[in-house]
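User: I want to check something. If I give you two sequences, will you return the structure for each one separately, not as a complex?

Assistant: Yes, each is folded on its own. Here is the first sequence with its structure:
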Amino acid sequence: MTELVTQQRIAKVLDQRAHDLLLGHSFAHQQIGFIHTLDIDYGEPMKQRTLLQVEVAAQQKRQQSSTAHHKYRAQASEQLHKVIETAIFKQLEDMDGVIHSTIGIEDGIASILDILAVKSASVGRLEPLVNDLSWLGRELVTLVNLPYYRNQRSKNTSVKVDSPSLALRYIGLDNLQLVIPTFAVRHWMPHSTDPFSLLKRRLRDSAMANAIAAQKIAELNEVNPIHAFTLGMLLDVGRIALVRLYLKTFEQVWQRKVQIARQEQQKDLHTALLELRPDPLFLTTLLSNKSLAISAQVIEQMAFKYLPFKGVMQQLVHGVDKNDEMLPLTNIMLKARCYSQYLNLKEHQLIEPDETLSWFSYFKFTKTELKTLQTSNFTNLAIQID
């Protein structure tokens, strides 16, 4: 096996591991095949009394019953998820519905991001669009009134800001180029991701790390850093869509199945269904296989006039044709996504040094890029409000 093929295989494994980690630390461990601490043999087992023959028979009967029930439950889950999968793919055929109803992307956001991407941008052009988005106006007002930023302003202007128009002027165009994509993606996040309690936070952290890593790498490679930051932030919009779709569809299909089983007095099926929860394995597979393609479709439907994202997303989804060259922004996105996934895996001790080395070599990180990324802050926007 050549070194490139080995690196490619490791990159694929680590990408899947990063998706698994979104759904939970213990789930990611299980997928790798780690032995749970409780299962480790620490020495001689404790002495137990010998079971009576009647107890042995009862235990065997319980095990058989339990095994049969687990099999039945697994079959019920499989049937349930076939219906869910069909329903999700049917909904994905209507991308307008996914954008507006599932994710909640308003048309004005694409216009705002487009304006921020050009040199002729002005607060005056942004103002009517922001005023049409009440949630965005509230977020901007809240931001400028945070004690940290109020203290940055001079004593003469440290009054409380109460209008989006004034907030826009205080924040300034340079900061808005970072703030608005960030607030938009946070606004689209699912309200709840139960039973995956940390999924929402991890999706938010992933988007932030993608965007900041993309911005830093772009600056080193003379690529527009605002384009890189914005696309880095939007890169996970497909994940947001699929998480929202899956959790909502699971609940709807599950409730209908439970109701039918109860009405038809299918006691075993009813009991099995009541024990079912959203399946992390189904969701991680869905995210890994489909999220990037959904992101590309969403970004295409947003119909940006000035942000050059369509060709980049096509290369990310389909690869680069032999006759074409990789676009500089495509290369930056690949590196940014790799690094943001690396940060999460490293935090949870789910990546080895040799895997890291191979992964970074595969994406051809330079020493300067890695040095810059290692000293960067991936949790907060570096903005100053005067």
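And separately, the second sequence with its own structure:
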Amino acid sequence: MRLRSLRRRLPSRVRMTTVFAAAVALTASLTSAVPSSAGTSAPAAERVAARSAERGGPGQPEAHDVVLAVHGGAGTALDPDHTSPAEERAYRAGLTDALRAGQRVLRRGGDSVAAVEAAVRVLEDNELFNAGKGAVFTADAGHELDASIMRGSDQAAGAVAGVRSVRNPVSAARLVMDRTRHVLLAGEGADDFAARAGLPTVTQDYYWTQRRWDQLMAAKEKERGARDGRGGDEGPRAKDAGAKGADSTKGTVGAVALDGRHHLAAATSTGGMTNKMPGRIGDSPLIGAGTYAKDGTVAASATGHGEVFIRGAATATIAHLMEYSRLGVAQAAHQVLIKQLPQLGGDGGVIALDGKGTFDAPHSSPGMLYGYLTRDGRIITKIFPSESPANE
């Protein structure tokens, strides 16, 4: 919080000058998103600086000619001082693998829906991210997963909520869109539908990871501290569990894509919030909150405080600002994520892509994990706050 407060007090001209000077001093290869082994021996601060790139100002797009983007959640992001070179490589590789999966679909002439499904499936299978295999625990030590997908050409959509035995919820969401007359299936009905459709199923222990278990224990210890009048003071276990990695309360994955026929699509998947009440559903499976796609406006996937994104109809509002107020994608996303949602009491981020390949990833949280693929095959990944500072 002190760092955020200090950054707010710095004049924007000073911040932009500093960032610009750093970007000019670096070679194009160092700002490349896909990490190489050459930088693994450098101190964390140097590794971050070597990959930092100049970011546009408020309401300015981050990139052009983007065909696919993914995110791995918003929150405190990764702390470079507590992230080993191996961990950095693993996170960047996870985002890159997802982008490569979607890229293969697009190169074969596949549509944007298939591309976002393929990208999100890779993230669901990676336990580093809070979706699928890496899903967090509910308060009763279970796992309940949500996902949604939307096609921009006709605004068809599908979603599942509270599933407990689907390996890849995003694929279940697509089946809801393609094979039923409904948009959202929940709980046991969604699990049964996915199984009957032939999707791989798993038992609850498939989702179990030590890291997520430690996060649950830390959350419960903090909860006990609050009840006992200790002000939620964190004990050793809580401090250890929270020392590394992104804030698990905002972990979500998502993808947006633009195919060769200029059609947009978006998908989002999550394990929810650590220690959430059983049955709690956030924004990820709700069309217009966590996911939205409409040709001519935007494909957007959100991550953050789900209740706030629901109340603010976050992704649909971005599309409506573009359609009715004629704002650009970056302006509309900035207006919603940075101006409106914080007033409702929550933060987070969004990846947003328009039909021309203009891309932005504004976030009010200290950091967000994301990456994107350009039309010429270039991949950029950003995992540290210095690579993608919070917008103001």
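Because they were folded independently, the notes below concern the second chain alone. The chain has twelve helices and twelve strands. The chain has a mean pLDDT of 84.
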